[in-house]
Design brief:
189 residues, mainly alpha, Four Helix Bundle (Hemerythrin (Met), subunit A)
């Protein structure tokens, strides 16, 4: 059970704040055509990334890793990235394929996380592959914000790597979830 004290840690408040950044992202991307807006979006994305790094650091440093934090941190990432991806799709900055890949990946992991949590009685923490995937998707978004040529080798490399990582992270999450479920079943025997 999550209690109020668990929610009010510095790291969890940062994660909650990052979740709320989805609103300014949505509003900012309404005027994405102007270069100044692209730079504001880029700056806001860097700020959101900094809060992500900082909340994890604070949680570990002050031994405040909580069940609420295990939920709110990845949820904040998924919502911010989801809002940005939806808006970039709506304004024609990303393809339908990329949009669906990122959204479906997040929905599978989120839904799977809820199911696994109910089965094993705790929240699965994020894993390294998932974090690397989110970082890579974030880099694609930052490159789009900077209006980098989509045929540039750097952009193409990061873009295709994010596709591979997205698929691998879903597979990795599924394997990990089944291992936790199997472990829980073995404890019950």
């Amino acid at each position: 059970m999550i209690n109020k004290k668990e929610i009010l840690t510095a790291s969890n408040l940062l994660s909650t704040f990052r979740l709320l950044l989805a609103v300014p992202f949505w509003i900012l991307l309404d005027n994405f055509g102007t270069s100044s807006i692209r730079y504001y979006a880029f700056g806001l994305a860097l700020f959101a990334s900094l809060t992500d790094v900082l909340d994890g650091f604070l949680a570990r440093k002050f031994k405040q890793v909580t069940e609420y934090g295990k939920i709110i941190d990845p949820l904040a990432d998924k919502i911010c990235i989801g809002v940005i991806i939806i808006k970039l799709f709506m304004i024609g900055e990303i393809s339908t394929f990329y949009f669906l890949l990122i959204i479906v990946r997040d929905l599978i992991i989120f839904t799977g996380g809820i199911i696994v949590s109910k089965i094993i009685g705790k929240v699965l923490p994020s894993n390294v592959l998932g974090k690397i995937t989110v970082i890579n998707i974030g880099i694609v978004i930052l490159l789009i914000f900077l209006n980098i040529d989509r045929n540039n080798i750097v952009f193409l490399s990061v873009y295709y790597l994010s596709i591979l990582l997205s698929i691998a992270s879903v597979i990795g999450y599924a394997i990990r979830a089944f291992e936790f479920i199997r472990q829980k079943e073995n404890e019950s025997v």
